[in-house]
Amino acid sequence: xxxxxxxxxxxxxxxxxxxxxxxxxxxxxxxxxxxxxxxxxxxxxxxxxxxxxxxxxxxxxxxxxxxxxxxxxxxxxxxxxxxxxxxxxxxxxxxxxxxxxxxxxxxxx
Length: 109
Fold this sequence. Notes:
Strand order of the largest sheet: 1-2
Shape: rod-shaped
Largest sheet: 2 strands, antiparallel
Mean pLDDT: 77
Number of strands: 4
Strand content: 5-15%
Helix content: 40-55%
Oligomer: single chain
Number of helices: 4
Radius of gyration: 21 Å
């Protein structure tokens, strides 16, 4: 599994591999027009070990997996305090705007 860091093994839903990012962040149907239902590696554990490498490589290249990986990494950076969450960002922006407004008004008073 070192070659596929997005995979986790589960025994809970039946023995098999799941994409840890897709399990949490993929929603309903994906693809152009939202016509592809999620299945192996997302809603059902993958257990066809004969074709594992090929299937894992295919999953790694899916556009929806790349998008959910970005979402997951954003959440991880917020949790690890490397990046402000949306409320912190809005608060900082609001404070900066208030400071600028005061600076503009100060000469007129």
